[in-house]
Design a protein that fits this description.
By secondary structure, the protein is mainly alpha-helical. The chain contains 36 helices and 4 strands. It is elongated, with a radius of gyration of 31 Å. About 0% of the residues have low confidence.
Length: about 650
């Protein structure tokens, strides 16, 4: 197995952590009779030699020895070794690695008939991925499908057939027929589900008309047949820990995830499938559905009310894993979580121990059930938040969630002010502590907050970084308070020659309405090119009093980055009132950067009938199923909130005549 291993100058080769001189020891340990030693060696291979999918010169040098290990029947865990080879040769690893594995591809053929099921599973995938003879590969898959009795290997064979269809479309006919046959009785429910998923990915025309009801029925049949015995204990290694973190029905999650991925933009079918999963009597099926729902919600626009309501129904489940998964998803939905608000409130009332989440390091944060309830805009969160604000130490970030409650959170203002007043100004954490409280007081437009905001601006010492970080946040709060912040004008004037000049000038305008004080500063900031976007936004608020800025705004609207062009065009409209020169700039920015659409839609809603020439953009946006900033497998909970605001502004703009 290791002939020639000592002839390789491993010390001259590299892996993720430097010299590869330890690699021969890892390779030999892969053949150890001790399971823990083998797991540790596999851990080392993935942790250094093939770190995060990367390939090094030492990785390529390992390939012949890994093939030699895989070929020896007396070596335990050879399936894991074949899986490692498949990962090394993956297309994402690059041509040299793929070439190195393909050079030994013939070795995978006998391994596909190996007595060990784990080896057969890994080798089946490898044969499709690395062998160049489609006819030979298809014949091997056909023969193995006819004789294989191990359910897990059969599922892998089904996936391999699907991969074959996608890799060799010209030779796919026979593989499609095999998949179609596997989607019917007498095959097991799991195999049939796997076949439906692969047909959906590669041959959707062969799917049954009643796909969703069929998939839901098969899922439930599979759950009834699923073995309930516990998995073997995994060793305390990186690979072992990853295995323990996986859901207990990882295969079920994969089967349904494949089907969802294949259905892609068939959102109505995906919602119906999700509802069927969430209504399952099996808790793990429901847990898999909850976890799968997050990507659907983040990427697509639809009426998710029924699914969200069912997710809310999981909150009184005894299984901690299912309840935590449901809470995690609902906390990302903001206003879309409203159908689950009653369930969230019931959980918050029943479980005060979940109001705050403690971390091993760092300050406690708001617990997810309460966070989800507040983000949904439900006023029932207010009394609980009030209790937390009255405690000696409130959870970090609480104020950020108050923002979503709107006017219903007004009773919290005194407690927010008191907590803001207790922040030690000489602390390097002052800005971090103040930010959520200022955000909440800004949203509430609490005029009584002015003294505490001024305390931050006047009292934070220079040199610790706290003052510089606090200024921008505090100025935004004063700006939102309007004329109530007149007592702050001396402090704001002192900021007009700093990097905060543009927002300070805007706050000064809000407090005094004195264009003579704000306009020269904003013109200077606009023409300097420093903070041009902020200066343009503030100039737009001055309206006709800022006509002197029109030439500079026209110049910025015709050049610069998309955000600056957009801000300049909006200010131009608000000052001049003529939509004709502004609308082409907004149309261009809409197409160039989807992230700018929220601001543009808000401007068009403000313009009313004057924005009618861009109604086609708004209509098209509302007719688009995918969220405006989403990518396949979308991420980011705040993208949902931004997208929902965009849609609301589009509807408002279209409703104007």
């Amino acid at each position: 197995m290791f002939t020639g291993i000592d002839e390789v100058d491993w010390a001259a080769l590299r892996h993720a952590y430097g010299s590869a001189e330890d690699v021969p020891g890892l390779l030999r340990a892969l053949a150890s009779p001790d399971a823990t030693e083998r797991e540790a060696a596999l851990d080392g291979m993935y942790g250094s030699v093939h770190h995060q999918g990367n390939v090094y010169d030492s990785t390529l040098a390992c390939v012949p020895f890994l093939f030699a290990l895989a070929a020896r029947a007396e070596v335990p865990d050879r399936g894991a070794i074949v899986e490692l080879l498949v990962s090394i040769g993956a297309e994402s690893a690059g041509p040299p690695a793929r070439t190195a594995v393909r050079a030994h591809a013939e070795a995978f053929v006998p391994l596909a008939d190996d007595p060990c099921p784990g080896v057969r599973r890994a080798a089946t995938t490898a044969v499709v991925g690395f062998l160049d003879d489609p006819a030979r590969v298809l014949e091997l898959l056909r023969r193995r499908s006819a004789v294989e009795r191990d359910e897990k290997v059969l599922r892998t064979l089904t996936e391999a057939l699907g991969l074959f269809v996608r890799r060799h479309p010209a030779d796919a006919g026979g593989a499609v027929e095999l998949l179609a046959a596997q989607s019917e009785p007498p095959h097991s429910p799991g195999t049939r589900l796997a076949a439906l998923g692969q047909l959906a990915l590669g041959a959707p025309l062969r799917l049954p008309a009643d796909l969703v009801p069929t998939a839901v029925r098969l899922l439930r049949e599979r759950s009834l047949r699923r073995a309930s015995g516990p998995d073997r204990a995994a060793p305390d290694t990186l690979v072992g820990r990853i295995r323990r973190l996986r859901p207990s029905d990882e295969e079920g999650a994969y089967l349904l995830r494949t089907l969802h991925r294949a259905l892609d933009d068939r959102v109505a079918d995906r919602i119906n499938l999700l509802v069927g999963q969430l209504d399952s009597p099996d808790a793990m099926d429901r847990c898999n559905a909850v976890r799968m729902s997050a990507g659907l919600f983040r990427e697509w626009r639809a009426d998710f009310g029924a699914a969200v309501s069912l997710i809310g129904g999981q909150l009184d489940c005894e299984e901690d894993q299912l309840r935590e998964a449901a809470v995690s998803v609902l906390a990302e939905l903001f206003g879309l979580a409203a159908p689950a608000a009653d369930d969230l409130h019931a959980l918050v009332v029943a479980r005060p121990d979940l109001w705050v989440h403690s971390w091993v390091r760092g300050r406690p944060s708001l617990g997810r059930p309460l966070k989800a309830l507040a983000r949904s805009g439900d006023p029932r969160a207010v009394p609980v938040l009030a209790q937390l604000l009255a405690a000696p130490a409130a959870p970090a970030g609480l104020g950020f969630e108050v923002v979503h409650l709107g006017p219903a959170a007004t009773p919290l203002a005194p407690a927010l002010r008191r907590r803001l007043g207790r922040i030690p100004l000489d602390s390097p954490e002052a800005a971090e502590l103040a930010a959520p409280l200022l955000a909440a007081l800004t949203a509430l437009k609490d005029p009584a907050a002015v003294p505490e905001v001024l305390r931050l601006l006047r009292g934070a010492p220079d040199g610790l970084g706290a003052r510089e970080a606090l200024v921008g946040q505090a100025v935004r709060t004063l700006d939102a308070l309007g004329t109530a912040a007149r007592a702050a004008t001396p402090v704001l004037r002192a900021l007009l020659d700093t990097r905060h000049a543009a927002p300070a000038a805007g706050a000064l305008w809000s407090a005094e309405g004195d264009a003579d004080a704000a306009l020269p500063v904003l013109l200077r900031e606009l023409t300097r090119g420093r903070g041009g976007r902020t200066a343009a936004e503030q100039l737009g608020r001055l309206g006709t009093a800022a006509r002197e800025a029109l030439p500079a705004l026209r110049g910025l609207a015709g050049s610069g980055r998309v955000w600056e062009r957009t801000a300049a065009a909006q200010a131009w409209w608000r000052i001049d009132g003529d939509p004709e020169p502004v609308l082409p700039v907004l149309r261009s920015a809409w197409a160039e950067n989807p992230y700018a659409r929220g601001a543009i839609a808000g401007c068009l809603a403000e313009m009313g009938p004057a924005g009618a020439p861009l109604r086609d953009l708004l209509t098209a946006e509302l007719a688009t199923a995918r969220r405006h900033t989403a990518r396949p497998g979308g991420h980011g909970s705040h993208d949902i909130a931004r997208d929902e605001r965009l849609l609301a502004d589009c509807r408002t703009a279209l409703a104007s005549r």
